[in-house]
Design brief:
The complex is a heterodimer of chains A (245) and B (236).
Chain A: E1 2-11, E2 14-24, E3 29-33, H1 40-47, E4 55-60, E5 63-66, H2 72-80, E6 82-85, H3 97-106, H4 113-126, H5 142-154, E7 160-164, H6 172-187, E8 192-195, H7 199-204, E9 208-213, E10 216-222, H8 223-228, H9 233-244
Parallel strand pairs in A: 3-8, 3-9, 6-7, 7-8
Antiparallel strand pairs in A: 1-2, 1-4, 4-5, 9-10
Helix pairs in contact in A: 3-4, 3-5, 4-5, 5-6
Chain B: H1 3-47, H2 53-66, H3 69-79, H4 89-114, H5 118-126, H6 131-161, H7 173-184, H8 187-216, H9 221-227
Classes of the chains: A alpha/beta (245), B mainly alpha (236).
The structure holds adenosine-5'-diphosphate and magnesium ion.
Magnesium ion binds at residues 40-41, 165 of chain A.
Chain lengths: 245, 236
């Protein structure tokens, strides 16, 4: 459903992505793991056009685009079908939780207030934030903010949701509530791409795992096989290091 | 103090205050309104990185910040008639003050917009907003509280700077004081009186600023702490 081919991206001449191929099928949950600095965030940002890839193609639904010259119009169309959940939540600070969720429906998609309100209520309910719908982001804990951010991302019903380390900015005792919401989405068949350091999530929830290092995909496979029998030496080392913690 | 001096001060008070209310205040408010429109426009075209127009905005700011206000006033009132544009003193003053302060407010707005973390804009794009929607719905509403204290400081400066309009024949607060001082030969007392009336006006504006800041900054404490420009942070 979403595929990128041969993405290259450099920052100031330093290559960060060196020819990444990556594919998500409908209903899949793909976990992207790898040491920090390996280019995971950059990959998600290129897919969502928050960064402009130097080279590569994106295939989304029936559309196929050269990534370095996609028009503003097409970028908007592609983004309308994607959700993005940021490490630092990025809730709009001038809006309540409810307004944050409404914004993508009413302003961006021109949906009627009444219809949008029903959707907003439903998604806030789903992430367990109905009670705090009228709170401003600064009045919410990190875990609560991230759950609202997830509600905001799923509200328009995108085809795929990209998560960039959604629990890394949270205190350890708050990661559970966010991971629970993500598990729920996964069990409902939501297509998700999740950059994560939570190995238990990658193992138990993800259907497929992609291991990145140094701007390339080192290894990927079905979640169970990947963890049971990593093939590459670098994968083994990485798993050994992270499992110890 | 002699009786005569007291009498002069009392009888002149209203004669200075009334032009203050009728001329200085409208002059200040109109000029300020113009400066907000110009400032916001100049800030927006700069952050939007529109080639050409951005350079024009910078040129404008360079000119108006780089030359004295009184020279700008003189050009507007005494200079423009030479090229066939004749303005009355009051509108000439509004234009000069508004255009001058517009250059300063442009920088206030621009830095307030740039103070908003880029994550806000990226989140807006990812829910499908376009650039103008992102500006109107997310970035500007967050920028106004950041810009507010500096805009208000500029308003208070402007109130006092309008006294320069006396030099282009606008009969405002200070002009009235000058006229009475010339008639009574009591410059010291009269100019102190004029200063006092400016002080009353600016004190009122300071109160207004405090009151508006409390209304304007949203409930969140975190927001206030991060953006309080010019206000003392409580030490805890
Ligand atoms: N905007 C940027 N400008 C310059 N370098 C960047 C930028 N974004 C990321 N990088 C660099 O690219 C590399 C990969 O970063 P990133 O994609 O964030 O890795 P990860 O998410 O896997 O930790 C890092 O070395 C980082 O310093
Ligand atoms: Mg990252």
């Amino acid at each position: 459903m979403l595929e990128v081919k041969n993405i290259h991206k450099s920052f100031a001449g330093v290559p960060v992505l060196k020819g990444i191929d990556f594919k998500v099928e409908k209903g899949e949950v793909v976990a992207i793991i790898g040491p920090s600095g390996s280019g995971k965030t950059t990959l998600l940002r290129c897919i969502s056009f928050l960064e402009k890839a130097d080279d590569g193609r994106i295939i989304f639904d029936e559309y196929e685009h050269e990534m370095k010259n996609v028009s503003r119009h097409d970028i908007k169309k592609l983004r309308m079908q994607m959700g993005f959940v940021f490490q630092s939540f990025n809730l709009f600070r001038n809006m309540t939780a409810f307004q944050n969720v409404m914004e993508g429906l009413t302003t961006a998609r021109g949906m009627e207030k009444e219809k949008a309100k029903k959707i907003a209520d439903a998604v806030l309910e789903k992430v367990g934030m109905s009670e705090r719908a009228d709170y401003y982001p600064d009045e919410l804990s990190g875990g609560q903010q991230q759950r609202v951010a997830i509600a905001r991302a799923i509200a328009p019903g995108p085809q795929v949701i990209l998560f960039d380390e959604p629990t890394s900015a949270l205190d350890p005792e708050l990661t559970g509530e966010v991971l629970d919401v993500m598990k729920k989405l996964a069990s409902e068949g939501t297509t998700m791409v999740v950059v994560t350091h939570e190995m238990s999530f990658a193992r138990e929830v993800a259907s497929r795992v992609v291991f990145m290092e140094g701007g390339v995909v080192v290894e990927e496979g079905k979640s169970k096989e990947f963890f049971a029998n990593p093939k590459e030496e670098r994968t083994k080392q990485f798993l050994k290091r992270t499992m110890r913690n | 103090m002699s009786n005569r001096l007291v009498e002069i001060l009392v009888s002149s008070f209203m004669k200075i205050l009334i032009p203050g209310i009728k001329v200085t205040i409208p002059l200040t408010l109109l000029s300020f309104a113009l400066s907000l429109v110009i400032g916001l426009f100049l800030a927006l075209v700069q952050v939007a990185k529109i080639k050409g127009i951005r350079e024009l905005a910078r040129f404008y700011i360079w000119i108006f910040r780089g030359t004295p206000l009184i020279v700008q006033l003189f050009i507007m009132f005494f200079g423009l008639p030479s090229i066939g544009i004749t303005l009355d003193a009051f509108p000439a003053a509004v234009l000069a003050f508004g255009m001058n302060l517009g250059a300063y407010n442009a920088e206030v707005f621009r830095s307030a917009i740039l103070a908003i973390p880029t994550g806000q804009m990226e989140a807006a794009y990812m829910i499908g907003l376009d650039y103008p929607q992102t500006m109107c719905r997310v970035i500007l509403p967050q920028s106004f509280p950041v810009a507010f204290p500096n805009l208000f400081n500029n308003l208070i400066s402007l109130l006092k700077d309008t006294s320069l309009a006396s030099s282009i024949t606008v009969i405002e607060l200070f002009t009235s004081a000058q006229q009475i001082a010339a008639r009574t030969y009591e410059p010291f007392a009269l100019y102190l009186e004029a200063a006092l009336i400016y002080l009353i006006f600016s004190t009122f504006l300071t109160w207004l600023q405090r009151w508006l800041e409390e209304k304007l900054v949203w409930r969140s404490k975190g927001f206030e702490e991060q953006n309080n420009t010019g206000r003392a942070k409580p030490i805890v």
